[in-house]
Design brief:
By secondary structure, this protein is α/β, with parallel strands linked by helices. The protein contains 9 helices and 12 strands. It folds into 2 domains: 52 residues, S-adenosyl-L-methionine-dependent methyltransferases (3-Layer(aba) Sandwich), CATH 3.40.1630.10; 168 residues, 3-Layer(aba) Sandwich (Rossmann fold). Helix 2 packs parallel to helix 4 and helix 7 runs parallel beside helix 9. The protein starts with a strand and ends in an 8-residue tail after the last strand. One of its GO terms (molecular function) is rRNA (guanine-N2-)-methyltransferase activity.
């Protein structure tokens, strides 16, 4: 489990939020590795020996740009957003794609199994709900803490199947490439091994009514070695589309 250092300045809202996740409260930072820091009105991810940190902020910077420009993105075409599908994001991570999808007016159920990442994302959604510019978008995201492959079958029984299951599995870290930003390096170190790709894709194809959309690097291998029905390809990213079991490609 991940350590969390709760500063005296942490608000009651932050203290309440972190109690929802299995984190280990500590009185000082660990000697090495990563930990969460709760201070003021924010939860951040820290790496011992580094000055920078990672927070989930949907109200500014790159997240704001993607939110306001999301309608023209390839992801919008991949999920056929004009049909207003319901989307389950089975690998939510830091929530960037979930937020873009929600900014398109879609209802998104997001799953994240790592407690520290889920805490960071939950905190980002909480703060986005307080901002007039992002509150409507944030309200369309429903975060579930846990393993999507385990939770989706049970959720189908109570809510029915979603139109789309969206997958963005963690790519192998490109250690020699400058393209790996420090934030993602923190993320890789925190999360470690990715979910079982075969089980994840299999469950997604059992769950979706219309399609499974998988985000990959443009030249990356197919998820679980399985070829998709078709693709949407951009300059650096592509979206592989798989049909649900029993669906007719035509």
């Amino acid at each position: 489990m991940t350590d969390i250092l709760i500063d005296d300045t942490a608000t009651e809202a932050v203290r309440t939020l972190i109690r929802a996740f299995p984190l280990v409260p500590v009185s000082q930072p660990p000697e090495q590795g990563s930990y969460l820091l709760a201070e003021h009105d924010t939860v951040s991810l820290r790496l011992v020996g580094e000055k920078s940190n990672v927070i989930v902020d949907f109200t500014s910077g790159a997240a704001q740009y993607r939110r306001t420009k999301g309608g023209g993105e390839l992801i919008a075409k991949a999920v056929n957003h004009t049909a207003h599908p319901t989307v389950w994001d089975a690998t939510a991570g830091l929530g960037r794609d979930s937020f873009v999808l929600a900014s398109l007016g879609l209802t998104v159920t997001a799953f994240e199994q790592h407690p520290a990442v889920a805490c960071l994302l939950s905190d980002g959604i909480r703060r986005a709900l307080l901002n007039p510019e992002t509150q409507d978008t944030a309200a369309r995201i429903n975060l579930h803490f846990g393993n999507a492959a385990e939770q989706m079958p049970a959720l189908v029984k109570t809510q029915g199947k979603p139109d789309i299951v969206y997958l963005d599995p963690m790519y192998p870290e490109r250690r020699k490439s400058a393209a790996v930003k420090k934030e993602m390096a923190y993320f890789h170190r925190l999360v470690g091994e990715a979910q079982d790709e075969v089980i994840l894709l299999h469950t997604a194809r059992q769950t979706a009514k219309k399609r499974v959309v998988v985000k990959r690097p443009r030249l990356g291998e197919h998820l679980a070695g399985q070829a998709p029905a078709y693709q949407y390809t951009g300059k650096s990213t592509r979206f592989d589309v798989y049909l649900p079991y029993g669906a007719d490609k035509g």
